[in-house]
Specification:
The complex is a heterodimer of chains A (417) and B (93). With 417 residues, chain A is α/β, with parallel strands linked by helices. Chain A contains ten helices and 18 strands. Chain B has one domain: Folate-binding fold (2-Layer Sandwich), CATH 3.30.2270. Classes of the chains: A alpha/beta (417), B mainly beta (93). The structure holds flavin-adenine dinucleotide and zinc ion.
Chain lengths: 417, 93
């Protein structure tokens, strides 16, 4: 069923009784050409591009819970391509280009809203760093504007500009950045992939791997029985360490919890996405009016899908330092997700040393914006056995060879990224 | 989360600095080995277990001891905490 204004009118005439489920609830078959483990945004996008770009439809996405129950449905929905390093920027810009056409491609309203992402600076050194990053972006053909204080004031007059400790001195704006509706992204990819013949199998946990005599992966063991596969791709985000260990892989990844918060609904207040440069705090306003904000990861290994009070306090302090007005808003909800923190803060899209097993992981707290390109590039790798041109740097062996992509310059400390 | 420091008693986790998994041991020969493998393993690779993890915490705003703490990464329940030189689970230091 194609969604359109005509279809809406037609359904309205039959009192909306004719809508069909958006995707088939598939039962596992004996085998597939490719099995994707993990029905988050990345797994679903991978399956969609395998079918739509590479014509591979004997594909299954195997999800232990419900699709989008992981980080794909827990994030703060910021999309941007304002990276500085050559290994990153073309990839994130490819994601941005895919976001820009996503709703037409999927025939689904993902509420992609390019309302701008503004990173604030609070010192001369930080302004220099932003000028450099902005220039690096422009060299890759990406939009960026370095704003002075007046420029920031025009966009966000409510900031505490003359804060004694962290005065706002300007900012780096990416006008094409913004937000998207996370659940709709998952549902849109699921629906489009399912329509092309991909099986989306929920409530099916991968518990182990089948291998042949040579050690190559030939399928997955699941809570609903074994499923044979020509190739297996892992896209399990925070559970990467646990699932990879079942195949005997030890990875440069630690799992850490990240929280997010949303306030009661307010009248339109915050124009785009704003990030504090002197602490870790970022905020945007959802279409329902809630202020959606977050900050640092908890800082210690965690598989608990929730956070603790020190970070709640830290995030709220950051918010109060930047925009004291939000002290009047009440907090509605907070929640947490488990991040696959890589050692240099950058992702991995690569083969593994085990034949037949492919890895998509290490997204840290920034994988939502990457979803379309991650799916595109992982599908490319699975279909062609060679990396996509925008993802050649995301290699698993870069930690061994020293080709780190250390965007934040904090080395091999996942809790600092 | 509160951490039972053997020297100071039960203290708020905010007084501590986290160092992570205590299992990786720094290679003694400078780490290069024939191929740099031991240092690579020590710096980058992690078991990242779900469940009990033995890890280092530094009591920066307390006695300034390094602790080895055994914590469940699902519930943050702490089952053991000893001063750094020991092994909370009873193994070799
Ligand atoms: C609070 C928070 C805020 C964030 N904010 C942003 C942001 O503003 N911008 C941004 O770009 N990124 C953000 N992120 C990061 C982003 O959400 C993740 O990097 C991204 O969603 C990870 O990819 P995914 O969608 O495929 O992961 P997930 O949705 O976590 O998908 C992994 C799936 O694998 C499944 N799985 C696990 N183990 C198994 C198994 N054994 N068998 C079968 N299935 C299994 C899980 O159930 C899960 O559904 C945020 C994350 C959080 C938690
Ligand atoms: Zn102490």
């Amino acid at each position: 069923m194609r969604y359109s204004i005509l279809e809406l009118a037609r359904q309205a005439l039959s009192r909306h009784r004719g809508w069909k489920p958006a995707w088939r609830d598939a039962q596992p078959r004996d085998g597939y050409d490719i099995v994707i483990v993990g029905g988050g945004g990345h797994g679903l996008a991978t399956a969609f591009y395998l079918a739509s770009v590479h014509g591979l439809t004997r594909v299954a996405v195997v999800e232990r819970g419900w699709i989008g129950g992981g980080n794909a449905g827990r994030n703060t929905t910021i999309i941007r391509s304002n990276y500085g390093l050559p290994g990153n920027e073309p990839f994130y810009e490819w994601a941005m280009k895919l976001w820009e056409g996503l709703e037409q491609t999927l025939n689904y309203n993902a509420m992609v809203s390019q309302r701008g992402v503004l990173n604030l600076c609070h010192s001369d050194a930080q302004r220099d760093a932003y000028a450099r990053r902005g220039n690096a972006m422009r060299l890759h053909g990406v939009d960026s504007e370095l704003l002075d204080v007046d420029g920031v004031r025009r966009l966000a007059p409510f900031l505490d500009f003359d804060n004694a400790r962290f005065p706002v001195q300007g900012g780096l704006l990416q006008p094409r950045g913004g937000t998207a509706r996370h659940d709709a992204v998952n549902w849109g990819y699921a629906r489009a992939a399912s329509d092309l013949g991909v099986d989306i199998i929920q409530n099916c946990e991968v518990t182990g791997f089948m291998t042949d005599a040579a050690g190559a992966v030939t399928g997955v063991e699941t809570s609903r029985g074994p499923i044979r596969a020509g190739k297996v791709g892992l896209a399990v985000a925070g559970m990467t360490g646990v699932v990879a260990a079942k195949a005997g892989l030890k990875l440069p990844i630690e799992s850490h919890a990240l929280q997010a918060f949303v306030s009661e609904g307010l009248k339109p207040l915050i124009p785009g996405v704003i990030t504090f440069g002197a602490g870790h705090f970022y905020v945007s306003q959802s279409d329902k009016g809630g202020l959606v904000f977050g900050g640092d990861i908890e800082g210690y290994n965690s598989y608990a899908q929730r956070g603790n009070l020190p970070v709640v306090e830290d995030v709220c302090e950051g918010g109060m330092a930047l925009m004291p007005m939000i002290g009047r808003a009440r907090l509605l909800r907070s929640w947490g997700g488990i991040m696959d923190m890589s050692m240099d803060g950058s992702p991995i899209i690569d083969r593994t040393p085990i034949p037949g097993l492919y890895l998509n992981a290490g997204w840290c707290y920034g994988g939502f914006k990457a979803t379309p390109a991650s799916g595109w590039c992982f599908a490319h790798l699975l279909a062609t056995d060679s990396p996509h041109e925008t993802a050649t740097a995301f290699r698993l062996d870069r930690f061994r060879t020293g080709h780190l992509i250390d965007e934040k310059g904090v080395g091999a400390q996942p809790n600092l990224h | 989360m509160r951490i039972p420091c053997p020297f100071c008693g039960s203290r708020d986790s905010r007084e501590f600095v986290y160092r992570g998994d205590a299992a990786p041991a720094r290679p003694t020969d400078g780490g290069l080995g024939a191929d740099g493998e031991p240092m690579f393993d020590y710096v980058y690779l992690r078991d990242n277990p779900i469940g009990e993890l033995e890890e280092f915490w530094y009591h920066a705003q307390g006695c300034r001891n390094w602790l080895r703490v055994v914590r469940d990464t699902r519930s943050h329940m702490i089952s053991a905490a000893v001063l750094g030189a020991g092994h909370a689970t009873g193994g070799q230091a």
